[in-house]
Specification:
It is a single chain. The two termini are 23 Å apart. This protein is 40% helix and 25% strand. Helix 2 crosses helix 3 and helix 3 (54-61) packs parallel to helix 4 (73-86). With 254 residues, it is α/β, with parallel strands linked by helices. It has a five-stranded parallel β-sheet with strand order 3-2-1-4-5. It has a four-stranded antiparallel β-sheet with strand order 6-7-8-9, with helices on one face. It has one domain (4-147, 206-252): Rossmann fold. The chain binds S-adenosylmethionine.
Length: 254
């Protein structure tokens, strides 16, 4: 049986709400903060699950050699268009994070905007991290921006809605299920008087569970653990309230 994230229909329908124009303009600042967090200046970066390429483009414009990988051909086409419009050179590859591996190639790998934990089988989450680990050069850095159990617990908003300039809107409902191991989402898009529900979910890890998982696939010196334990790559990138809605909106948006 195919997994929810393999549906092009879902990404095509939710993409306009998930990757708003405003989220595209935020990307260069997010990339600056990632570069500072990683303590690197430039090199080769792997933007795993790059979606419409907003971070890939910002990395390329900052002088990095970029590979953006995503499973969705629809989103990759948007990424190609974005790069072309921005005059950025990126290598975009349609591939699955469960099998994509280019041994010892990258100085930095990023997995951003809650792109982790989608797999039904947790062994696939682990396999994806193993591939990222193998794809990094010795001493390379992985930056993950994801929702953890702690961040869900600290800012849970079960229902949100937003409207786009063209009058279409989305109502987002979410629930924590399976003994706090997953969050499930129902996003109902309403456009031209037609409502369509979309369902998806992802596994949430506690910060310490994520660190254990990363350690088990070979990541981390102590310095990196400390960085992760601050958790809050999300807090660093998106401090509560900085864009008016802060974390709650980010939770509901991914
Ligand atoms: C929430 S979006 C984030 C996109 C991008 N990182 C951003 O910040 O705009 C999640 C992305 O993960 C991709 N994805 C999901 N599962 C994948 C997999 N197994 N392999 C590669 N890409 C995957 C989706 O196609 C989608 O583009």
């Amino acid at each position: 049986m195919s997994e929810w994230f393999e549906s092009e229909h879902l990404w095509a329908n939710l993409g306009p709400y998930m990757f708003s124009a405003e989220s595209m303009t935020r990307a260069p600042n997010e990339v600056s903060q990632i570069i500072a967090l990683a303590g690197l200046t430039n090199g080769c970066v792997l933007d795993m699950c790059c979606g419409p390429g907003r971070h890939s483009v910002a990395f390329a414009l900052a002088g990095w050699t970029v590979t953006g990988v995503d499973l969705s051909e629809h989103l990759l086409q948007l990424a190609i268009d974005n790069a072309r419009q921005s005059g950025a050179h990126c290598d975009f590859v349609c591939h699955d994070m469960r099998s994509f591996c280019r041994p010892s190639t990258y100085d930095l790998a990023v997995l951003l905007f809650s792109s982790f934990g989608y797999n039904a089988d947790p062994a696939d989450d682990r396999r994806a991290l193993q591939n990222l680990h193998s794809s990094l050069r010795r001493g390379g850095t992985l930056v993950i921006d994801t929702v953890t159990k702690e961040t869900v617990a600290s800012g849970f908003v079960p229902v949100t809605a937003s409207r786009r300039d063209d009058g279409s809107m989305v109502v987002r409902r979410k629930s924590v299920v399976d003994n706090w191991s997953r969050v499930t989402f129902e996003w109902i898009t309403i456009a031209n008087g037609v409502a369509e529900p979309h369902h998806f979910s992802y596994r949430i890890y506690a910060g310490s569970e994520l660190v254990d998982l990363l350690t088990s696939v070979g990541f981390l010196r102590r310095k990196d653990l400390w960085r992760l334990r601050r958790e809050s790559i999300r807090h660093r990138l998106f401090p509560r309230g900085t864009d008016g809605e802060g974390l709650d909106r980010r939770h509901s948006g991914s």
